[in-house]
Design a protein that fits this description.
The complex is a heterodimer of chains A (about 170) and B (about 150). Chain A is mostly beta strands and about 170 residues long. In chain A, about 5% of the residues lie in helices and about 30% in strands. The longest helix of chain A is centred in the N-terminal third of the chain and has 11 residues. Chain B has one domain. Classes of the chains: A mainly beta (about 170), B mainly beta (about 150).
Chain lengths: ~170, ~150
């Protein structure tokens, strides 16, 4: 063995898995509405049934189909959040950035999205936010149609009310 | 609600692992980079290729590296009619257990052959080196029939 050369101590052993992802009926419906600039959820066809967004087609509590589509507001409440300081390989967003669980007005379950146009140190649970959409000509079947959510000047939602607002927000 | 169109999208999940070789496989790869193949001597005198860190029978630590030949004999093989994207060749080839000259156990690698009929158990093969070696098993591009 030649001594001048460095001894091999590590090897690159990447694994790449290629999927063909099919959205399924309920998420496809949700994405088709997003393409039109609308946030929607689904519920069982019952008056007090909870609204799930993004919908998966069935109610996780009862297993029954969510047959009714509900249009949601693009205003939401921060249910929880995290500030990311460590860069994630392949992610174009530069840290620090805020990732939050947000509940849209009219929905009873949170989805994950970015918060921006805000002071990271002032982000808090119960904070009111609204979607900042991309220009309409860029809308696609994607949650990325919403660039991020930014804080709005509305009073905080008490913790016990988070996830329980109607589509009209705090007024409802 | 109307039935939406079916939405499909390609999606790649990648794990960019870097693995530590340990001293023995590290030495094997380092030797491959220099276009040499080494095995290791086990407690019963057998030469094991690729080398292993511990004796297969006694579990004692092994350290006696032995250079083996770049030619060997096919012990068994499987012909791949339709190579897939991850395979080392884009034309039909064989995966083979190859017992290199000076080794006592066979090592798996790929063998280039014109057709399935051209290859047989017992056939002699020779290592074909990659143009540029990096210290990995693919430094041996394939084995060819001699």
């Amino acid at each position: 063995m030649s001594e001048e050369q460095e001894v091999v101590t590590v090897v690159n052993a990447p694994v790449y898995l290629q999927y063909n992802f099919t959205a399924g009926a309920a998420p496809a419906r949700f994405l088709a509405q997003l393409k039109k600039g609308k946030l929607t959820g689904q519920r069982r066809a019952e008056p007090e049934a909870p609204v799930y967004s993004p919908p998966r087609g069935s109610c996780p509590a009862s297993g029954r189909p969510t047959e009714q589509e509900v249009e949601l507001s693009d205003k939401a409440t921060v249910q929880s959040f995290t500030i990311v300081y460590i860069p994630i390989p392949g992610n174009v967003i530069e840290p620090p950035f805020v990732v939050a669980n947000l509940v849209a007005d009219g929905a009873n379950i949170s989805f994950i999205h970015l918060m921006s146009d805000c002071d990271n140190s002032e982000v808090h649970i119960g904070q009111r936010v609204q979607a900042v959409w991309k220009p309409e000509e860029e809308w696609d079947y994607s949650m990325d149609n919403i660039k991020y959510f930014k804080p709005i000047d509305e009073p905080d939602v008490p913790v016990e009310k988070i996830g329980k607002l109607s589509v009209t927000g705090q007024e409802g | 609600m109307s039935q939406p169109e079916v939405l499909n999208q390609a999606f790649e999940l990648g794990y960019t692992y870097t693995r530590s070789t340990g001293p023995v496989i590290g030495r094997f790869f380092t030797e491959l980079r220099n276009r040499n193949i080494v095995g290791i001597k086990a407690s019963d005198g057998r030469v094991v290729v690729p080398p292993m860190e511990y004796d297969p029978d006694t579990a004692e630590e092994l350290s006696e590296f032995v250079a083996v030949g770049q030619q060997g004999e096919i012990v068994s093989f499987a012909w791949v009619k339709e190579p897939r994207a991850a395979h080392p060749m884009d034309v039909p080839f064989a995966w083979a257990m190859i017992k290199l000259d000076g080794a006592d156990v066979a090592m798996v690698h790929c063998v280039a052959a014109a057709s399935e009929d051209a290859i047989a158990t017992g056939a002699r093969v020779q290592a074909v080196w990659a143009d540029e070696t990096i210290g990995y098993i693919t430094d041996i591009r394939c084995f060819k029939l001699v």
